[in-house]
Amino acid sequence: MEGQEVGKSTALEGNTSLLDENSERTAYYNKRLQSEPENVDLWLEFIHFQDKLFADENNRIESASTLAVIEKKLSILEKALEMNPSGLKLKFAQLEIGKTIWEEGKIDKEWETLLNRDPNNFAVWKQYLLRKQCELSKFQVSEVISLYSKCFQAIGQGKGVRDGHNRSKDFIELFHQYLSFLNQCGHVEKAVASFQAVMEFNLFCPEEYRNLDLATLTEHFEDFWNSMVPRFGEEGAKGWKYWSSLRQKQPLSENKETDDKKEEAIIKSKEKCEAWFKIETLRETQNWLPWRPDIEKGETEDNCQDLDSLVLFDDISFVLLTIEDEHALLQLLLAFFDGMGLVSRWQKDLLGIHLPFLNTSLEFCQYGLYELNQLDVLMDESNIPDQNRKYCPSLLQITSNVLKTTFDLFSNEYSLSILTLLWIHLQILHSHGNDTKSQTKILKKSMKNVLKEDRNRNNLIIWNAYVKVLQMLGKNDEALHTAELALMMTAKSSESTDLENYGSLLLCQTYCQILLNFSSTNQSASELTSSNLTKISNSLKCVSENIAYDVTNIKQLSSVEVLKIKRNFQSMINNYFADLYLKKNEIKSLSLVTLVNCAAIFDYVTSGLKSAMFVFDNALSESEALQFCDVLKENLFCVQLNIIKFHMLRSTLSLELLRRTLTLALKSFPNNVRFLKDFVELEERSNISCRRRRYFDASLKELTSPTPVIFAVLSEMKRHEQVSQAGKLGNYWLKSREIIPETGISNRIRSLFERGLQSPYCQHTPLIWRLYIHFEVKMNQIERSKGIFYRSLQQCPAVKVLYMDAIKLFGDEVFQQMVDLMVEKEIRVYLPTEEMDILFNSDSLDTVTP
Prior knowledge:
By secondary structure, the chain is mostly helical. Helix content is 66%, strand content 0%. The protein has a domain at 14-117: Serine Threonine Protein Phosphatase 5, Tetratricopeptide repeat. Keywords: Nucleus. InterPro entries: HAT, NRDE-2, TPR-like_helical_dom_sf.
């Protein structure tokens, strides 16, 4: 009894303390908001605090989503909007929270009022468009495209934007969102055609039209678009400017049709539902370019048998806008590659260079532009549903042609380097899965041809990419020899450009990593030889002294020389920071990260891990003073973690250093894929999952991206798989499988899904819904998975892959319903069921005919 009294007393004291803390926090917010009523972020912070306040008062998390807390939040927001009537963040928060209790008519009226009040505000349009994409009951592809058209026209007329730079920025962000929408609902022909039109319109505009207004320029462009000449990215395309000078019709490159033999084989060997799925997927991978009549065969638009593949001028005219800034055009190219799923926004760098994606809300994390082809960077693929669209030769050919065409149209060396690396990336994708000697030779030959071009002969960034490709192909000796030759040819001078300095640092870093066997995961293969250590220290000595590296003249460094080199590195790092304090420079920022890594590698091979960590700690501390330090700091954490993990492969080291560094990195960058992946892998080394679960439980309360939810779910799925495998191996468990302790894990996975899907950052993320559906199917909970699927359609009605998943998983039971629903919502269907019936009937007749 005394023990129970003590327990009750302790609990009461704890509750009293918690109430006092919450009261103090509430008083703090009230006091600050009285003195700073215009502080929008503070109002939003106070609204977010209500979740914790109500949860603590009721001692359960579920209460945070009750009617009481929602009404409290709306009351605060109403007061905040009285103080800040133009605060869009507050209005968006009100609409997001209010949708849980307001009638649909009221929400529509609020949005209409907002648009009428500020009809040319891009931020309002963007949120409105995203909302319209996520309403199943009212969703129609054509209606959403019509809304996009109005928004593009507002930007094109220069309304709602402050200057030319913001106009281009808004356009690229909207264009990326539009491409992704078309891609998700299967209308890739419209997406490709829109991209072709924008790039043709800006890169190949005839000189005599340059000073015309947008409307007149668009009229002239219509003549080119309706001609039968190859367009941007197609074989034989020469551009609007060339066509305008000749005004002659050129033969259109022949469209590649679906392989009829493959379809016939599918029909003969599959049931109707499965055959439809296979043929639909096959046609998806082959039909990228819009259909156009072949004038040599006397065809007209009336000959088109698939109207969805016919893209008229009216379908693309509204996206036409003049963009003069070269950097903006580069971002437009990247938006296309990202929208088509060829380059992931999670991919922080490409063969050593940072991709300059527009650093705005273009991330669209809450509306789920995460594709399954990006999951290979996350973790084991065993729990990941199959991806419908693979990298197909036709798409890679189109994008390769696009890049080849743009090489002569960009003058900036940095832009050209990125375009070249994108082209190399496409060649690697093209050779993916073809590990034959001939494919390797083709890839190497392509790389050598790139290096022979005048613009790349002295570009060490491209040489570094070639070295990395050789390393990827397992040709380490050749990669090492190539890096040495390139470093020896490097001419050092005080007049070197920032890009040249970056290329030199990048190549030296790669050279040292090859000598260290940095990419190896085999502990025995990571032993360092004295010869390699000497080469590393000598190459880094040349970097610190800004002289060319001579592999024939290497020697052991004395202690005095080592100290001098360390001082030189520190002086160089300080100079880079001083330059960045004065002016933001993307190339210098990248160079600084590489320089710090080179300095840390030198300290590592001469003085050990502790000395290398000191270099990183100093650089990270210094980066805090920079206003734009986020990318710099994130990259510094990446290279620091690389060295720690490398050291752990070849030496015994406590996990504490890695755990502490990861904690700091995740505190600053909770959505970084690499950091989350390293964290999950670290915690997998022990059978105790409490630390990992505590972290994800905390991160799910403060979501700003679906990434932590995805990692939390996949890590538990992997744990579930391990427990299941252990049960299969243990004979004493096989006799009574029901006692295998895996039900707790499966229920936790469901809990993670449900908690994540309560967040607006996850509700419209197709990937999370797909993982949830496939997990329940894997657990043999078919009815539950169907329920989840229908919930997903309410949030992501435009995403074709969800409908395809249902057909694949649930078969004939939902087949006709899903196809009819896709047709009703105007989602792209390549094989109508009527055509499927004809194909099956003709095949049946062929079978019975003697």
